[in-house]
Amino acid sequence: MHASLIREEPPVITGLGVLAPTGLDVGEHWESVLGGKSRIAPITLFDPSPYPVRLAGEVSGFFARDLVPGRLIPQTDRYTHLALAGSEAALNDAHLDPASMPEFEMAVVTASSSGGTEFGQHEMERLYTNGPSWVGAYQSIAWFYAATTGQVSIRHGMRGPCGVFCSEQAGALDALGQARRLVAEGSKVVLSGGTDASLCPYGLVAQLATGQLSTVDDPQRAYVPFDVDASGYLPGEGGAMMVVESAASAAARDVPHYGSLLGYAAGFDPPPGSGRPPALAGTIRRVLKQARLEPSEVDVVFADAAGVPALDLAEARAITEVFGPRGVPVTAPKTLTGRLYAGGAALDVATALLSMSAGVVPHTVGPATLRPGCDIDLVMDDSRETRPSTALVLARGHGGFTAALVLGKGNRRFPS
């Protein structure tokens, strides 16, 4: 991205909407994170007994009928329901009424990992059980990766640039990077973030194909990134949506903000066996350059934390290469929820913003003994009151996607 496209004042995040295993709103989520309350538990959304993975992070207590217009519920998948509810919460949190804004100056950019997985599964069941006449008309749109972007855009009359990123766990950082660019090019408001809801038999089978999910049955030890006993990760659902707007727009509306988007960079890992190094270290260097920060000016890293030994080692080496051995506090609150795919990095961004606002680096629940070679300062056992003012969020998606986002502290105190 050419530097001239970015205004001197970076865009800010004025509203957050969280629907995650750790909570159905920002306050509940932050309380769970600070308290180290893991929401990893046996899957209840379907019978997991035939599958080797039986644990996940579910969004408990979410009922679409309470938060989503009734006519949209049968037309869309659970991942869109979560995003619609999250978008409404983010707009309310930002004290923003879309009807008061020019419709072509509002944009929507989301992330999607697998689209409407559960909706698609039910329609395939009808197809193979009863025949094609039983397949509903909404199958043609509900499964689609861009379904959430479209429904959010329609619901709030946001007719500016809209899009979706399909880069798995890295997707939400890519979406926020695009939101940053759109604000620089003239959009006043961008609803951005990501959600996922692929906890169904079809979705789990697709995830098992990667060979990276943990089959450990102990919820406390199944997902322990960087640990000597790391055996993979656990899936989860949910995510976060947020209101990104120009600093001028936020000032004109006289609203505080959680933080600013100082920089974004992306890369792509070379194919296995190529002999070339992973892209993460270079991606970190590029995002720091764009944010005009030295490594010593980064106060905390929110790690991708794959939980796969080889990927953990690669990430630890990249962090060490840029910041030095144990050169920066590293945390991975996603051990409380599992990896949320399209929603994972969005939730990490929300957590990082809350972390800076509260002046606390949350600890990582689960890991006990770091794997040799993982020479990072992983925050364990208890949170640290270090008053972070900059945060680096890292994300890697299956297949090679790599992204990094640098956040600066805002002027909104949380909890207020």
Please give the alpha-carbon distance between the first and last residues.
Answer: 36 Å
Report the principal-axis shape. globular
Number of domains: 2
Biggest sheet architecture: 11 strands, mixed
Keywords: Acyltransferase, Transferase
GO molecular function: 3-oxoacyl-[acyl-carrier-protein] synthase activity
Family: Belongs to the thiolase-like superfamily. Beta-ketoacyl-ACP synthases family.
Organism: Lentzea tibetensis
Compose a concise summary of this entry:
This protein is an alpha/beta fold and 416 residues long. It is built from 12 helices and 13 strands.
Keyword list:
globular, eleven-stranded mixed β-sheet, alpha/beta, Peroxisomal Thiolase, Chain A, domain 1, 12 helices, 2 domains, 13 strands, 416 residues, two-stranded antiparallel ribbon, disordered N terminus
Write up what this structure looks like.
This is Ketosynthase chain-length factor. Pfam families: ketoacyl-synt, Ketoacyl-synt_C. Belongs to the thiolase-like superfamily. Beta-ketoacyl-ACP synthases family. It comes from Lentzea tibetensis. One of its GO terms (biological process) is fatty acid biosynthetic process. The chain has 416 residues and is of the alpha/beta class. The chain has two domains: 251 residues, Thiolase/Chalcone synthase (Peroxisomal Thiolase, Chain A, domain 1); 145 residues, 3-Layer(aba) Sandwich (Peroxisomal Thiolase, Chain A, domain 1), CATH 3.40.47.10. The protein has twelve helices and 13 strands. The chain has an eleven-stranded mixed beta sheet with strand order 5-4-6-7-1-8-13-12-9-10-11, sandwiched between helices. It has a two-stranded antiparallel sheet with strand order 2-3. The radius of gyration is 20 Å and the shape is globular.
